[in-house]
Amino acid sequence: MSAATTDKEFKNFSRHAASSLDGGQFLTFSLGEELYGVDILRVQEIKGYTAVTKIPNTPPHIKGVLNLRGTIVPIVELRTKFGMPTIDYTAFTVIIVVVVQDKVMGLVVDAVSDVLDIEKKDIQSAPDFGNKVDVTFLHGIGKSGDKLVSLLDIDRLLLDSTGKDSSKDLSMAAAA
Amino acid sequence: MSNDFAQFQEAFFEEAAEHLAVVEEGLLELEQHPEDVDLLNKIFRSAHSIKGTAGMFGFNAVAQFTHKMETLLDLLRNRQKSVSPSIADLLLKATDCLKTLIQATKTGATIDDETVHRLAGELASASASDSQASVIDVNRKVAQSVSAENGDGDRTYIITWTPPEWLFQRGLDPLQTFKELKSIGVLTGITLDMSRLPGLDCIDPEKCYLSWTMQLTTGKDLKVIESIFEFIREDSMLSIEPVKAMGQEEYAQETAAISGGNETPKQLGQILVEGGLVSPGELDRALGQQKRVGEILVEQKVVTQQQVEQALQKQRQQESVAQAKKTDATSIRVDTAKIDKLINLVGELVITQSMLSDLGSRFEMRQLPVLLERMVELERNTREIQERVMSIRMLPIGTAFARFPRLVRDLAAKTGKKIQLILSGEETELDKTVIESIGDPLTHLVRNSADHGLEPPEERLDNNKQEVGTIRLNAFHEGGNICITVEDDGRGLNRDKILVKGIKQGLISESDNLTDEQIYSLIFKPGFSTAEKVSDLSGRGVGMDVVKRNIEALGGTIGIKTVFGKGTTFTLKLPLTLAIIDGMTVRVGKETYIVPLLSILESIQPKAESIKTVVGKGELINVRNTYIPIVRLYEVFASEPQYTDPKEAILLILETEGERVAVMVDEILGQQQVVIKSMEQNFHKVEGIAGATILGDGRVGFIVDVRGVLEIARHGSPVTA
Fold this sequence. Notes:
The structure holds two protein chains of two kinds. Chain A is α+β, with helices and mostly antiparallel strands.
């Protein structure tokens, strides 16, 4: 990867750090009945689900890797990551390709729904459920009309899930 | 510092490295041919280039040091001093020091000031003593000739001359004046006073703002000197004062100091101190008050302290990344011919593509043969382009060999042995990354040959060998690989000694029935050394295992051939490139894996009777009377196999680090070249997998890391365990 793109991504990254708490545009997607949001500046593309190659000896939420125009991109299944039951993939199942620092990763989600403008005043910090529910990878909760959107801190979410200590993370999710 | 500038700096470091190599190579050759002026000129030119560019980038430490080297080289070049071994040695040491200096400038590491100063001092004294001699020599000649003419002694005048401002406007040239002065005597100690020079913005290029102070030693009359200034006398400020004759030594020292300093412009502080305007202490204090850019910016409220710290943090990160990359230069110089060919091929590719799209837009079944023909053409184009692009990364291995003449020279001096080094096959091309990575392993091997392999001269003579030992480095292509051999005609490996040592160190047991090959490969075990004493060169038992590991990390192998008393040959077999490997595609259940061809010895479909078990579980396969442990790939990778019975499956006999293992797969699909894609780029290292590649159907396939698979089979994987 050239220095220029890394630089661009770095800017993206730093811009993001401010924007997601300050409000801005979010790409929202659904997992079951729940709605989640990702800072739109972090999304590289959205593509339909295609079969992936499973990586041996990795935690279950690492779905596998995909050839994205010559680059090997790891795919994370968010349902498994959050400890939700898996469902069969449908025509709506998509992979949201996001940029996390200088890494490109894909998230398998049930469906994409919308791009929402959420202002800062409509964002409240993530609720504290104690040990029962792990919300460390939420930036906060956004309101848009009568919808509630959980805004993801994808850096924390994805860098954890590809890090070496992911098994610990996983067991927490399973316990919850 | 802006990015653009950094880019040029990168170019400087690359260029400097090249020039340093020329200097070093030249100096080594110079030792053999001290009279070779062309060689001296070549060395001088390279040193001069380093100095010039270093000065341009403001790397003053480098420029100043190089300048000292250059002064000495210049003397050698002008035959004022002849090349002695001690001078050559000093220059080589200085080259090393310069290398470190440049490296330090690049990485921002701290410099070993003491060594730099010591060497700079040595260089200065080597050249000073010489120039002193030569100046005296010249003086004497002048004195002789003058006294012959006049019968009168020489006198020295101090001339201070401030020419009129209109000097240039009248078409007069101060240089002419100096030439005339020089014609009547010895002109020395010319200093230029630029104090009247205005800022660049208000300078008038037609006006002369300069003045000079100089010393003229001549036998001519004061009037003769004055006559030279005749035309400009009126408007000039001119003083010509005779001084009492200096002691010759004192005088020569002064001239030597001046001749040492007049080639690079001095720094302002230095000039001020020399002019007696400020004391060194005052200067230091003033320099101490200079602030760093960050501090100034913060003070001026352009940026906040925090931002500066972040920037510094980033800078440090970049530095550490740069250091992690070691000395890897990130660019390649490519032969224009290679690029031209590539452009031609791309042209052909474009034509083929347009023919195909033309065909595709109005395709009928009867055109199928045409389509197939075009496809063949496309395939040919693609393959050729691939080859050409790969060849751009190829460099002659000579660049890796270049360091050895010096190394061997130093080793010979250290061990007191007589060693000649013969290089061959330097033009053999291989991938740049491979070249960069084999440098260290090769150094280890050469060092080993010099220290352990070759005998001291007396012992060689006793054994009816030539006094001079030979180390031979050779590189050549063999199949899709490159072979590098390091050969010495020394004492060879002592099989029995290794065996005894191996048993003593518990690496093998006495009952083991080992082949010679296996015994020799013991030297690659960590901690193994048969050297009686640890020398500063080798014998600590680290080295050979590192060599082996490095070579294997590159996807290569290392072999030993040795005859006791006759010599040892190490053969490295390396892939031509790291980006593409030859692989065997194998299938396990639905997954496709690629096994590096280099590690495959053979593949077999086992018979029931050749499979035995130990302790009920550990399976072994009998391959021509050797029992090899079986590893089931589906167990290692926790996947669903088609066959669980070895009799139905295929066993690949693989070799890694001298160990053999039979890996069980469902089916062999074929053999192909695969382009290695990094898993680390977007993910992290996965145990048992060396990398990924894109298969023919666009899916991702994994390249098997044989060593890693073996480790998982033995100890379990880090995640599932």
